[in-house]
Input
Amino acid sequence: MDNGLNNSRNDFEFFQQLINGEKLDYLDSAATAQRPVSVLKAVSDFYRHDNANVHRSINTLSSRATDSYEAARDKVAGFIHAADSQSIVFTRSTTESLNLVARSFGDLVVTAGDEILISEMEHHSNLIPWQQLAQRKQAKLVYIGLQADGELNMTDLKRKLTSRTKIVAIAQVSNVLGTINPIKEIARLAHEQGAYMVVDGAQAAPHFAVDVQDLDADFYAFSGHKMLAPAGIGVLYGKKALLDQMPPVQFGGEMIDRVDEQSATWAAAPLKFEAGTPNIGGAIGLAAAIDYLQALGMDKIEAYEQDLMAIVLKGLSQIDGLTIYGPLDAAKHASVLAFNLGKLHAHDVATALDLQGIEVRAGDHCAQPLMHYLGISAAVRASFYFYNTRDDVDRLISGLQRTKEFFSNAAR
Ligand code: PMP
Output
């Protein structure tokens, strides 16, 4: 199944190391992805040769830095098919993007008695900002239930989406279940009821092509560090007409138009949301990451990861006593896979895999309400990216078998 993507591993120095004396099997890209040399070089070139502050002074270096920063904004707009670069706000992360929408737009449109609709599978980043907004405004936070296979219960969604709903906020891909949610359809249903659609794209944008106009998302948030870019750079896409109405939430330099002693006016979006010196190197790294992903091809990445997921789902379903949370059909399952092995604690399984050089994550995955919903306190999560190979997947399967044998022998 080498369609050329496997060779990309050579672009990552990171994979050349041993972990606990074993070849590294990195299965934690949903937490953060690795960076290829081209991204590291773009960031380091910026700091070596072009480092200057943006949007401030008319000198050669500052205009060079500003040009690169704004070119990164254009690149991001192209990557998610936004109509206008000015609808791209640079933030620190998905978390900051979603907080910005909840604080600025949420405070603007939500009033007492309104409802905010989210799902039982949301990451805390797409839950707590809405919980806080509901508390501030005496609004109600309503949860859409899930089907037994971890897909969103669309009947429940249609029942709960009413004229009282002001905002619908849903992950395009669950960071635990790997479920791919039908955002386009949900956005259509939301708009029919006069509600706004906010999408948490943290686990989606790195893995398949996203078209925010086709989805008709009002807001779309994602993080650079999950798609090969440095940590500390994130994106909030918003429809320009909405961004224009929204008040800033942070105040200071760079975001103003005119300042008097007692009052001030704001720059136009997106700059009014980017107070202070932004993460210029991060934005440049994100542009290089997008170049890298686009050279591979997002459709190719999606198809390759689906093939890997089919193999891992099949392999894991043959391990006795292993429970998979989320859809069993690879076509409906993005590159995140959560499971538990019999009654073993997720942390013990992750530790046993770690000793074999297999790096997975264990815990509640910042989704405690989902853990309660599933009736568990923790799960193991393996997550994949285009640089993972068939060998990585085979090692996970055999590593789990070995872990199972080890603990059953120990129990004797
Ligand atoms: N939403 C989802 C679905 C995620 O997986 C994550 C990261 N685990 C986040 C939001 C938050 O991303 P960040 O920590 O980069 O803000």
User: Anything to note?
Assistant: Residues 30, 93-95, 123, 125-126, 171, 175, 200, 202-203, 223, 366 surround 4'-deoxy-4'-aminopyridoxal-5'-phosphate (CB under 6 Å). The chain has a mean pLDDT of 96. DSSP finds 13 helices and 17 strands in the chain.
